[in-house]
Amino acid sequence: MSDTSAQFTGNIPDIYDRNLGPVIFEPYAQDLARRVIVPDGAAVLELAAGTGIVTRRLREQMPSGATLVATDLNQAMLDHAQARLADLRGIAYKVADAEDLPFENAVFDAVAMQFGLMFVPDKDQAAREARRVLKPGGVFVVSVWDEMEFNPFGRIAHETVARLFPADPPQFYRVPFGFTDPGALSDLLSRNGFADVVVESVKLEGRAPSAHFFATGLVEGNPIRLMLEERGAPLAPVVDAITAALVAELGDTPCVTPLRAWVATAR
Q1: For residues 240 and 39, what is the distance between their CA atoms, to the nearest angstrom?
Q2: Across the beta sheet with 67-72, what order do the strands follow?
Q3: Furthest C-alpha separation in the chain
Q4: For residues 7 and 67, what is the distance between their CA atoms, to the nearest angstrom?
Q5: Which of 110, 137, 193, 250 is the most buried (most CB within 10 A)?
Q6: Pairing mode, strands 91-95 and 198-208
Q7: Where are the domains of the chain?
């Protein structure tokens, strides 16, 4: 998880949160949070919390006496989350690798992970770690994107960048869409000790105020920015090219994209 595809550094967290968060992550944050039902006094762990988009929704729907630990591999993302959620009580923040969680066995009533599993190299180990830290009967809720075919914003961005850099196209956009088989997700959880596994297809919609706003997030708000900078490529022409492609297919002011993900719940 230390390669370029996992590096959310510099001002990437801010642009990610502002230009991508409300468009593609917030709709699923609300869906995921409603699936994490815990009693007062419970403890909840969030993996790959990023800039705190799901964290806020979890905290708002949890009982006041429950506690939430938000973790991410990237300190910069957690710093941004902690700052933006300063108004909320009952959240602890900790840098943690999903493959090697710094927690004792059986201490959480629920573990939540939105759109983070795709970035984990050893997904079996991450599943085992989630199970290890859960109490008996505890719930694991995890979501992954469906294929680019059903998430056109990802396909458009990937195809546009590939056209701009035909000799050496950056491959970042493939990573978030690299674990799209619901059967594989179900099998992953089942073979690592989870029961009552249910995987649902969740179709939502993302709305950006403009295609340029969305394109800015797709280029400057994720690690493909680092890949472009390594190639010495200016970012503005890439943003403009993706903007034009988004407008052509998804419209402008607003730019509206279909979204589709798999959400698994297991005990």
Answers
A1: 48
A2: 91-95, 67-72, 43-47, 108-114, 134-145, 255-266, 198-208
A3: 56
A4: 28
A5: 110
A6: unpaired
A7: 4-266
One-letter identity of residue 127 = A
Is residue 102 a contact partner of residue 38, using CB atoms and an 8 Å limit?
no
Stretch (H or E) spanning 258: strand 255-266
Q: Tell me the average pLDDT across 10-36.
A: 96
- Report the topology of domain 4-266: Rossmann fold (3.40.50)
Q: Using 50, 70 and 90 to split pLDDT, how confident is the model at 8?
A: confident
End-to-end CA distance of the chain: 26
Q: Please answer whether residues 3 and 230 qualify as being in contact, where contact means their C-beta atoms are separated by less than 8 angstroms.
A: no
**pLDDT, position 6:** 52
- What does the pLDDT look like over 230-255, one tens digit per residue? 999 999 999 999 999 999 999 999 99
Q: Is the pLDDT of residue 9 over 90?
A: no
Which of 59, 247, 266, 22 minimizes the C-alpha distance to 156?
Answer: 247
Residue 221 near residue 20 (C-beta atoms within 8 A)? yes
Task: Convert the pLDDT of each residue in 121-151 to its tens digit.
Answer: 999 999 999 999 999 999 999 999 999 999 9
**91, 70 Cβ separation under 8 angstroms:** yes
